[in-house]
Design goal:
Elements: H1 2-6, H2 8-27, H3 33-66, H4 72-107, H5 114-118, H6 125-152, H7 160-190
Amino acid sequence: MAKLLGNLNLALLLGVALLALAMFGLHGGEIGADGYINYWLRFFHVISGVLWIGLLYYFNFVQIPTMPKVPAELKGGVSKYIAPEALFWFRWAALVTLISGIAVAETNVTGRYLMQALTFQENYRVIGTGMWLGIIMAANVWFIIWPNQQRALGIKPAEDDVKARSAKTAMLASRTNLVLSIPMLYCMVTQFYLPQ
């Protein structure tokens, strides 16, 4: 068991196999091909969203507050190894979450709702609000946080004063996403349960 779970790829493969078993075992032939496609898209939307928001919370609750306490000789371990890897998963999870969310809205078996949600039409205001918050957050990741983190971490060369400004800009953009994530998650979770 340690060999299986000690290898990330094998552990993920086991998780996907259990997912398929749960999906087909619990739903059997009740759903139909279109339903399975939409369920898979929903699954990837949720799991990529968990990774994205989980990393957002890691940065804001763990890394940013802890870095001032880390001894100078150890900071390089975070800035050269941990932060770039976390930012890789962070930005790609944001993109996959956005794309899969759009795909969910366009392949919904009870009716497509992308345009109704994006234009806040009746019955779609809650999910539309969540979608717009997610779009703003994803744009923030790709167009503000990532370019500034590249300079702050030395992935792209920059003078020390530019690195410091970039680090502050990235932190403020990340905090903005933290703030936006709270109502966004509320909208996503309650979309089908509250009157619109």
